[in-house]
TrEMBL record:
Organism: Mucilaginibacter gracilis
Protein name: AraC-like DNA-binding protein
Keyword Oxidoreductase: no
Domain HTH araC/xylS-type: 206-287
Lineage: Bacteria, Pseudomonadati, Bacteroidota, Sphingobacteriia, Sphingobacteriales
Keywords: DNA-binding, Transcription, Transcription regulation
Length: 288
């Protein structure tokens, strides 16, 4: 493990630096960027479709088996690593945060897609057989378009990518809670966005409920109904996730991490971390 945890921006691994996007078949990408198999972060969005291969890939410390016709999505800031077995191939698209902003009037349009909410279990999707040909066609069309350098070519790439996003989003429609009002689901998404932004300084459900203009009981009921967990646990899990991300960087001391997460002192942070993970921060580092 390196002292400085690697964080990659789109320019360090893209041949299209001025356009904020990288499009490639996966096998040559992996061959060119073998160091990306080690734990690292991205400052950009990351989408991979596997068409062949095996092994594991880990997103935010949760490991998944690699399977053909599995697609996964990552948002900026997530921790990621690979451990492949044998040959692996597919497609990869990396794109920057502002890539779609000049293309769409609604700059937060990607927030509509659950797989871009930063929640690990939403980001890994197995594509059903009936969609294999359509998904492959779209990825091939994106690759082809990126090689032609025609007028409005990047706009065509964006339009094709949006087709993929919409097709994948439709797969999750059946999984949405039928009895939950759209209003409550919107509140939950807003709560999750707020926890991603304010987890360091807001630690109590009542703080988030106030920002959402609802009562703490209402917020807790929404989380229990849709997620099966309490609002307090959602906040704690986000704090623990960030603590794990920071602990990978060995040149940050536990005291510095506790300070970054607004704990009163490192001993309180250590007790908190061990209570919910079963490991002290130092022991967690030894597992990496």
């Amino acid at each position: 493990m390196k002292e400085q945890f690697p964080v990659y921006d789109i320019c360090t691994i893209s041949d299209f630096k001025q356009e904020d996007i990288l499009i490639s078949r996966f096998a040559p990408y992996l061959q060119s960027h073998k160091n990306l198999a080690l734990p690292h972060k991205h400052t950009f969005y990351h989408m991979v479709l596997f068409t062949e291969g095996a092994g594991t890939h880990a997103v935010d410390f949760t490991s998944f088996a690699v399977k053909p016709y599995q697609i996964y999505f990552m948002v900026p800031g997530q921790v990621h690593s690979w451990a492949f077995e044998g040959a692996v191939d597919g497609y990869i698209i990396n794109f920057s945060v502002p890539f779609f902003q000049s293309f769409l009037l609604k700059q937060d349009y990607l927030d509509n897609f659950q797989f871009f909410d930063g929640t690990t279990n939403h980001a890994i999707i197995n594509i059903p057989t009936e969609l294999h040909r359509q998904i492959i066609y779209l990825f091939e069309a994106i690759l082809h378009e990126s090689e032609l350098n025609l007028k409005l070519g990047l706009d065509m790439v964006k339009a094709l990518m949006l087709q993929i996003f919409i097709l994948i989003a439709r797969l999750n429609t059946a999984d949405a809670p039928k009895s939950t009002a759209n209003y409550n689901y919107t509140l939950l998404r807003n709560f999750q966005k707020l926890t991603n932004q304010r987890f360091a300084d807001l630690k109590l459900p009542k703080d988030y409920a106030e920002l959402l203009y609802i009562t703490p009981n209402h917020l807790n009921a929404i989380c229990k109904d849709i997620l099966g967990t309490s609002a307090g646990e959602v906040i704690r899990n986000r704090v623990i996730l960030e603590a794990k991300r920071l602990l990978i960087t060995l040149n940050l001391s536990v005291t510095q991490i506790a300070y970054n997460l607004n704990f009163t002192d490192s001993s309180y942070f250590t007790k908190f971390f061990k209570k919910y993970t079963g490991l002290t921060p130092e022991d967690f580092r030894k597992t990496l």
